[in-house]
Specification:
single chain; Uridine Diphospho-n-acetylenolpyruvylglucosamine Reductase, domain 2; alpha+beta; FAD-linked_Oxase-like_C; Oxid_FAD_bind_N; globular; 444 residues; 3 domains; D-lactate dehydrogenase (cytochrome) activity; Vanillyl-alcohol Oxidase, Chain A, domain 3; Uridine Diphospho-n-acetylenolpyruvylglucosamine Reductase, domain 3; FAD binding
């Protein structure tokens, strides 16, 4: 594709008082995320990069960037920390990366609720929120570096989903303020169910400049490892703990062997060939947890108070999609799926059917008012045909696959075109300049 360099020169001159990055290496780095977890996305997206990166610090800057982008008809892709795995922030048609990481102010913070700019890092936010007894409701395994705006735009679930489900569940985002991509950019404020237009929208439906988010009560989270001789017993323990209303927990993560062997830093606490549970439970509820562990024949191998855990690497960093990261550090041929099993019976069926081909990793989360097992199962990639066979077998047996090997919103979700979201994009982005190619239902 031939690039009209004069357009970018004029664009840059017009916005010379805003930070603009043109260094090829930095632009390339800021054009990517963790798409390489998928060998399919790696081949599709490996050569995609922007022409330049813009780093605004205020909403007024964003408005000027949007206006200039429309004027020059330059594609614009919004970026947070770039910790996603599906190419959410990778520009398919080059153009501009709008890096919002410097819009990182906490506007206000009150018990139960806060207002933040999109570039606020999640761990940094929690450090301040815990001073008044509150914390984020949920966060991904990239918690230390991920931004709140990036998680809303490109994430879905994480630690805390045990209690609060998915981001898209009603009440998990109260208000969002965004800038449209029009000749005269508008500022819109969405509340209530209207916020669904931007949740997991990959920045295709507006540029988020402010969010109002509900919080959760902060507990001192004790971090615990329990090992089991039998995987299904570990899974049953995970379900029982998740169903135990009297035990306050934040993370219930179950790993079949050989996955624990990939956790290099945790090897002193893991036994070869055994299965493990990585847990975050309120310090006040460790005693009843011990009784539950005894009931299921598990063995405690690791236990750190919240104060102790804060001084080292959190167990969170071995769960959710960081499990895939650790496995790939051992063997880069590993890839993964994202599955809602919904029942342990379905987990057992898949465990028995695939045997050693797939190592099951469960994360329990709230769905439909009850705790259910979700999976980020690991396997070595062979061919696209075999990957599709694995997906089809799961789906034929009642599991739901959120496919991490595609870059469009619809195909990575419920495979259905959201007509309301498409209509909203047509209204606020009439030229289709926001992250083009990521919303399959949108056509000019």
């Amino acid at each position: 594709m031939t690039v009209n360099t004069s357009i970018y020169q004029e664009f840059s001159a017009e916005l010379s008082d805003i930070e603009i990055i043109t260094d090829i290496d930095r632009v390339t780095k800021l054009s990517l995320d963790y798409y390489h977890f998928s060998p399919i996305l790696q081949s599709q997206l490996n050569d995609k990069k922007a022409n330049l990166v813009v780093r605004p610090t205020t909403e007024a800057d964003v408005i000027r960037v949007a206006k200039a982008g429309v004027n020059y008809k330059i594609p614009l892709t919004v970026r947070g920390a770039g910790t996603g795995n599906y190419g959410q922030c990778i520009p398919l048609e080059a153009g501009i990366i709008l890096d919002l990481s410097k819009m990182n102010q906490i506007k206000w913070l009150k018990p139960g609720i806060a207002c933040v700019e999109p570039g606020v890092k999640m761990a940094a936010f929690d450090k301040q929120a815990r001073e008044i007894g509150w914390e984020l409701r949920m966060a991904p395994s990239t918690y230390r570096t991920a931004t709140i705006g990036g998680f809303i735009g490109g994430g879905s679930v994480g630690m805390g989903s045990m209690n609060y489900g998915q981001i898209k569940d009603r009440g998990n985002l109260h208000r969002v303020r965004l800038v449209t991509m029009e000749e005269q950019p508008q500022i819109l404020e969405l509340t209530g169910d209207d916020v669904q237009q931007v949740i997991h929208g990959y920045g295709t439906t507006g540029i988020i400049t402010e969010l109002e988010i509900p919080l959760a009560p902060a507990y001192p989270w004790q971090e615990i490892i329990v090992v089991f001789d039998d995987f299904m017993t570990a899974a049953q323990f995970g379900q029982a703990l998740s169903d135990s209303a009297g035990i306050v927990k934040k993370l219930v993560s179950i790993h079949s062997a050989p996955i624990p062997s990939y956790f290099t830093a945790l090897q002193p606490y893991l036994t070869q060939g055994k299965h493990c549970a990585l847990l975050m439970v309120s310090e006040y509820d460790v005693a009843p947890l011990k009784d539950l562990v005894t009931e299921y024949g598990g063995t405690f191998t690791y236990s750190k108070t919240a104060a102790e855990a804060a001084k080292g690497t959190s167990l969170l960093e071995f769960t959710w999609n960081h499990t895939t990261l650790h496995a790939r550090n051992i063997d880069p041929s590993f890839t993964y799926l994202q599955t809602f099993y919904f029942t342990l019976e379905r987990v057992e069926k898949m465990y028995q059917h695939f045997g050693d081909e797939i190592a099951i990793h469960l994360e329990f989360l709230k769905a439909g008012g009850k705790a259910v097992p979700g999976g980020l199962q690991l396997f070595r990639f062979t061919t696209e045909e075999r990957l599709q066979e694995i997906i089809e077998y799961h789906e034929a047996n009642g599991a739901f696959i959120a496919n991490p090997h595609v870059y469009t919103i619809e195909d990575g979700g419920d495979k259905q075109i959201d007509k309301d979201k498409v209509a909203f994009k047509q209204k606020i982005d009439p030229y289709g300049l926001l992250n083009p190619g990521k919303m399959r239902g949108f056509t000019l």
